[in-house]
C-alpha cells in the first residue's frame, strides 16, 4: 500500500544550497482547537512540584495514577525526549481520558503545539484520510524563530496620501499609498506606507508633528504623543509631549516567533484565483471552503526552508502533540501512515485515546487489542484510566454543575451521583442543563431538586435503558 511520508522532503539532511525564492515566513497563530466545552473545568493535571496528583487540583478528581503518568509525559515532551513516541490513554467510557488529554494541553502551555482530532474526522468526503492526518501532524509541530525586524520611530514631517482613481468607478478615488517622512535627532527618512496601514493612522488621528512608532513588518503603528517642539508656553492642550527620539529613524529589534509547520504551509500556499471556475466555482469554494491547496511540493519547499533556518541556528523545532481521540475508528491505511510518520526524524508525540478492549479494526476482520494493530501498540506507552467510585462521581458532577452554573440541592447532587454509578458519568453530566432549564420553569429561583431530576430522567433516558426498551419493543 502506498502511503505518504508526512515529512517527505525531510527536515534533516536536505540540500540547502538551492534558492527558495518564493517562500516567505510570516507569523500565524495556530488556532488551538477548542472542542472542550465539556471539559472547560479542566485547567491542568493538578500535580504537586514532586509530580503527585492533588485531589481537586486543576479541576480534576481522582484518577491519580493516570495524571501522574501524564505529568511525566509532559515533562518528557518539554525536554523534547518524546518525539516519535506515542501514548495511549485506555479505559472504559467516561473515565476522563479526553479530560486528561485536555489537561496535558494546558500543562504544555502556548509554545508547544497541541492539536486534537477525533479519529472519525478523517473520513471526510473531500479530503483524503492521510491528508487529514498529515495536516494534523504539521499542526502539531512548531518552530521557534528569532527574527530581526526593522521599526521606525520619529516625528512626522510629511503625511501625504497619494490617490488613484478606483477601478471601475470613474468618480471614486482610493488611496494608493501614503508618503511619510519621519525625523529623529539622528536624521530623517522618507517611507511609503500602504493604504491599509494608513487606516490605523486615521483611527488614532495621527498627524504631522506627532511622534510615532511604526513596525511595518507586523503592520503596527502607535502614536506616542506630540513632538516637544510644538509645545508653547501658554499651551492649553491636554496633549502629551514627547521628545524627539534619539539615534536614527530606523532601528532593529529581535523578535521571537512561534509558528506551526501547517501555518507556514498555509501562509505560503498560492492564493487561488477567485475567478477560477466562474460563479459556480466561486460559490462552491465558499460553501466547501476546504483546504486542498497545500500540495506535497509546497510542504517539501517549506521543509527545506525550515531546515535551512534550523541548520543556521535561526530556528528551533518544537515537536508538540497530536491527540487522536477514539483511535479505534482508524483503519489500517491510517495506522500504516501513522507508523511511518512516527519513524520520521521529526514527528510530534501522538497521544491516542480509546475505550475499546478487544476490538475489530475498521474495514477489516482482524480483532486487535484496543483496536490498534500490534506493531503500533508495541511502541506505545499505555496509561490506563479506571472507573470512578460514587464519591468521585459526585465530586465531578459538582464541579461540572458549577461550570455550567447549575445550582443543586444537596440531595439532588447525591441523586445525580447515584445515576452516574448506575448508568454513566456522561449521562448524569448531560442531565445538568435540562435540569436547570426545567427547574427554572417549575420552581424559578430555587436549586434543582430530586423531583426535577426524576422528571428530566423520564424525558431523557440513558443508553442502556434505551437499548432495553428497543429490545422489548422488538420482541413485543
Ligand atoms: N477525573 C476527572 N475530574 C474532573 N472531571 C472529569 C474527570 N474525569 C472525567 N471528567 C469529566 O467527565 C466527563 C466525561 O469524561 P471524558 O469525556 O473525559 O471521558 P472519556 O474517558 O474520554 O470517555 P469516552 O471513552 O466515552 O470518550 C467530561 O465532562 C470530563 O471533563
Ligand atoms: Mg473521550
Automatic annotation (TrEMBL):
Going by the record, the broad EC class of this enzyme is hydrolase
Compartments, record wording: Nucleus
The keyword Transcription is annotated on this UniProt entry: yes
Q: Would the keyword Translocase be found if you checked this record's keyword annotation?
A: no
Q: What superkingdom does the record give?
A: Eukaryota
Q: For the AAA+ ATPase domain, which residue ranges apply?
A: 83-387
InterPro entries hit by this protein: AAA+_ATPase, NA-bd_OB-fold, P-loop_NTPase, RuvB-like, RuvB-like_C, RuvBL1/2_DNA/RNA_bd_dom, TIP49_P-loop
Pfam families on file? TIP49, TIP49_C
Q: State the UniProt keywords alphabetically.
A: ATP-binding, Helicase, Hydrolase, Nucleotide-binding, Nucleus, Transcription, Transcription regulation
EC number(s) for this protein? 3.6.4.12
What name is this protein filed under? RuvB-like helicase
Amino acid at each position: 500500500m502506498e502511503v505518504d511520508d508526512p515529512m517527505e522532503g525531510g527536515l534533516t539532511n536536505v540540500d540547502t544550497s538551492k534558492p527558495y525564492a518564493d517562500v516567505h515566513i510570516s507569523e500565524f497563530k495556530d488556532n488551538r482547537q477548542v472542542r472542550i466545552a465539556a471539559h472547560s473545568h479542566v485547567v491542568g493535571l493538578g500535580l504537586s512540584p514532586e509530580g503527585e496528583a492533588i485531589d481537586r487540583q486543576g479541576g480534576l478528581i481522582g484518577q491519580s495514577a493516570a495524571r501522574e503518568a501524564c505529568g511525566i509525559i509532559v515533562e518528557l515532551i518539554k525536554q523534547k525526549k518524546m518525539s516519535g513516541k506515542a501514548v495511549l490513554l485506555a479505559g472504559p467510557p467516561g473515565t476522563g481520558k479526553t479530560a486528561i488529554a485536555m489537561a496535558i494541553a494546558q500543562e504544555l502551555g502556548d509554545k508547544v503545539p497541541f492539536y486534537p482530532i477525533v479519529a472519525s474526522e478523517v473520513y471526510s468526503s473531500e479530503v483524503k484520510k492521510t491528508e487529514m492526518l498529515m495536516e494534523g501532524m504539521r499542526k502539531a509541530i512548531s518552530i521557534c524563530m528569532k527574527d530581526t525586524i526593522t521599526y521606525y520611530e520619529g516625528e512626522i514631517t510629511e503625511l501625504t496620501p497619494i490617490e488613484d482613481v478606483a477601478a471601475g468607478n470613474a468618480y471614486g478615488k482610493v488611496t494608493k499609498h501614503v508618503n511619510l517622512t519621519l525625523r529623529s535627532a539622528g536624521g530623517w527618512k522618507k517611507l511609503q506606507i500602504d493604504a491599509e496601514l494608513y487606516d490605523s493612522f486615521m483611527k488614532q488621528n495621527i498627524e504631522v508633528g506627532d511622534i510615532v512608532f511604526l513596525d511595518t513588518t507586523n503592520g503596527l503603528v502607535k502614536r506616542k504623543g506630540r513632538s516637544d517642539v510644538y509645545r508653547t508656553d501658554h499651551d492649553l492642550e491636554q496633549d502629551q509631549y514627547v521628545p524627539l527620539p534619539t539615534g536614527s529613524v530606523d532601528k532593529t529589534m529581535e523578535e521571537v516567533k512561534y509558528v506551526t509547520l501547517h501555518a507556514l504551509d498555509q501562509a505560503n500556499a498560492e492564493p487561488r484565483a477567485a475567478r477560477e471556475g466562474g460563479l459556480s466555482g466561486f460559490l462552491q469554494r465558499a460553501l466547501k471552503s476546504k483546504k486542498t491547496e497545500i500540495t506535497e511540493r509546497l510542504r517539501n519547499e517549506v521543509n527545506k526552508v525550515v531546515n535551512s533556518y534550523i541548520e543556521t541556528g535561526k530556528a528551533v523545532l518544537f515537536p508538540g502533540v497530536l491527540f487522536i481521540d477514539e483511535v479505534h475508528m482508524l483503519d489500517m491505511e491510517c495506522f500504516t501512515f501513522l507508523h511511518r510518520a512516527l519513524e520520521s526524524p521529526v514527528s510530534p508525540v501522538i497521544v491516542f485515546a480509546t475505550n475499546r478492549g478487544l476490538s475489530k479494526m475498521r474495514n477489516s476482520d482482524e480483532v486487535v487489542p484496543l483496536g490498534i494493530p500490534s506493531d503500533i501498540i508495541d511502541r506505545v506507552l499505555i496509561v490506563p484510566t479506571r472507573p470512578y467510585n460514587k464519591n468521585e462521581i459526585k465530586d465531578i458532577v459538582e464541579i461540572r454543575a458549577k461550570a455550567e452554573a447549575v445550582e443543586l440541592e444537596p440531595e439532588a447532587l447525591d441523586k445525580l451521583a447515584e445515576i452516574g454509578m448506575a448508568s454513566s458519568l456522561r449521562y448524569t453530566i448531560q442531565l445538568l442543563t435540562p435540569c436547570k432549564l426545567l427547574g427554572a420553569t417549575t420552581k424559578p429561583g430555587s436549586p434543582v431538586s430530586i423531583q426535577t431530576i426524576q422528571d428530566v430522567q423520564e424525558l431523557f433516558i440513558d443508553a442502556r435503558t434505551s437499548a432495553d426498551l428497543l429490545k422489548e419493543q422488538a420482541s413485543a
